[in-house]
Amino acid sequence: MNRNLQYLLISLTLLIACTSGDAAAQVSRVSTANPMTGKPYEKVYDYDFVDEKPQFPGGNCELFNFINETREYPYEAYKNKIEGRVLCTFIVNPDGSISNISVLRSAGNERLDREAMRVISMMPKWECGKMSHKPVAVRCYLPIAFFL
Fold it and tell me: E strands within the chain?
């Protein structure tokens, strides 16, 4: 099986597993400010609980192509044969921009974590999530795999 296809299947499986949650966590308050307006977010919805989910331009296939084309294996991690997955979380703002990128679960190597955050920060604007046909801020989760 092609290595990129393996990464795609593993990442997709993790994405599905990591985005499941319970209904009680539908809305969470975020104390950080929207970088576009400087005002605090009123509501941030979890990915599973919006009417229309945010989507990378072109869909999941293009998302994984973007990750595979943009991701650069950190030299020190490559040299020391360090592998792992970094689970990141970020917010897709109502205008489609990405903000509040953070590592939820580390791969155990700071360089891999920073590279995963760099890749997410380079993403183009997404199609925003909507609740009752109105654009809203949505928290998304994305695993980025690093395997030799």
Answer: 27-28, 44-46, 84-92, 98-105, 129-131, 134-146
